[in-house]
Amino acid sequence: RLMKATSKAAHESRKPGDDATLAPEDAARFLSCYCSGHCPEDHENNTCKTNGQCFAIIEEDENGEAILTSGCMKYEGSRFQCKDSPRAQPRRTIECCQTDFCNQDLQPTLPPPIDPGSYFDSAHWLAFLISMTVCCCTLICITVVCYYRYKWQTERQRYHRDLEQDEAFIPVGESLKDLINQSQSSGSGSGLPLLVQRTIAKQIQMVRQIGKGRYGEVWLGRWRGEKVAVKVFFTREEASWFRETEIYQTVLMRHENILGFIAADIKGTGAFTQLFLITDYHENGSLYDYLKFTTLDTQGLLRLAYSAACGLCHLHTEIYGTQGKPAIAHRDLKSKNILMKKNGTCCIADLGLAVKFNSDTNEVDVPISTRVGTRRYMAPEVLDESLNKNHFQAYIMADIYSYGLVIWEMARRCVTGGIVEDYQLPYYEMVPSDPSFEDMLEAVCVKGLRPTVSNRWNSDECLRAMLKLMSECWAHNPASRLTILRVKKTLAKMVESQDIKI
Ligand code: ADP
Ligand code: MG
What we know:
Layout: H1 7-13, H2 24-29, E1 31-34, E2 37-38, E3 47-50, E4 53-60, E5 66-73, E6 92-97, H3 122-165, H4 176-186, H5 194-203, E7 205-212, E8 216-223, E9 226-233, H6 238-248, E10 261-267, E11 274-280, H7 287-293, H8 298-316, E12 327-329, E13 338-340, E14 346-348, E15 355-358, E16 363-365, H9 380-383, H10 392-412, H11 437-446, H12 461-473, H13 484-497
Parallel strand pairs: 2-5
Antiparallel strand pairs: 1-3, 4-5, 4-6, 7-8, 8-9, 9-11, 10-11, 12-15, 13-14, 15-16
Helix pairs in contact: 8-10, 8-13, 10-12
The protein binds adenosine-5'-diphosphate and magnesium ion.
Residues 210-211, 213-216, 218, 229, 231, 259, 279-282, 285-286, 289, 336-337, 339, 349-350, 352 line the site of adenosine-5'-diphosphate.
Catalytic activity: L-threonyl-[receptor-protein] + ATP = O-phospho-L-threonyl-[receptor-protein] + ADP + H(+)
Enzyme class: transferase
Protein name: Serine/threonine-protein kinase receptor
């Protein structure tokens, strides 16, 4: 029965050397091989039988000695193997042949020991090359970047040192007023030359702090005996410094009702940057400080309201021509940003948020700073965010609303018939002390509230006129508000009728 089994079955069940079970036709196809070290249990005379090949193998044992053995290698379908990796460990070499006892003559030799230098085959070698190239390139890039950064930093430091070392010669006895007047008549009309500004800034001695805003501290300083105000911006407020400096240096900006600019300076770099803005010093401080402790008569009220209107009018007005001035909207008008001059008039300060408009280019130049105006003074369209940011006139009309609130603050402090109100901020009784956006929106837009007015205002001609004026400034609809030119003309008439000297 066994002899009748299919040759395939015989293949699967037989091991080389099982010659007892071989069919005669199969036995003819089997090879006899010499075996040593790989002999089957029932071998005879170191002979084995296989359907595959005879082999001889030389292997390195644990002591590093070469041992030669041989035997039969079965043919098992596609799994017939007679090859070896030259990199196998421990080292070995196998050789096969296909005639009876042919493996007796085989003399395989051990592969040479592995040379660490030849460890990489081509794939490894390629990967190695790529990673080395990437590493080298990265290293070169880092070195180049570091080098240029270092060079840039040293250049920058040298530039700053040079600038700091450079000084303009300002003759002794020359006052700030002289210097500014000279530059007005000879220069571009946009302020002192830069080097003169830096020289003045460097020569200033700081005396004491006189004010603090949201964007910096204001100090009283002294330049060759003259008092000046030095606004020191917080480092993070560079955009505010930049805009304020830029606006003050706009051609034809100088006006008696706009804070007089003297110089701007920047010292140091990075986290140690110090930003200075040097202006005229006004010992009476802001309009807010002044109104708190001082009352006005009607003449004083008109002078003050008129001078503020003149300042705002100059700011708002575009002057045409090659040496023209753009129209400027303040965007943070309030009593704390108006300074009191000694002669009872005032000037507009804090231009860090101003926007410029040039009708030639039709461009609205909004500053890049994240600063926003003061919530208490924000017009309804700013609060309900309906203001069209691309429409310059919208900013102008929002300024008029704030101006209306400022003259309300002034009018409360005007004594008529022996009566005067205490100083208060607009909406003081309607919103909390540091009102949120929502508080203001609720009061101004939703409830439509406006600062309250004392009865006495209606019984005084001047205050009645002022009330009319302020109401027309703080109208809900921006288009219904007066222009600053109209306000100025109305006040000018009132001033004239009262025979007040401005
Ligand atoms: P901020 O941009 O931080 O609001 P401001 O320019 O409004 O700074 O100044 C803050 C305060 O400092 C003002 O409200 C005022 O009291 C005082 N101050 C500013 N400039 C002057 C000046 N030139 N003379 C006198 N006081 C000033
Ligand atoms: Mg301010």
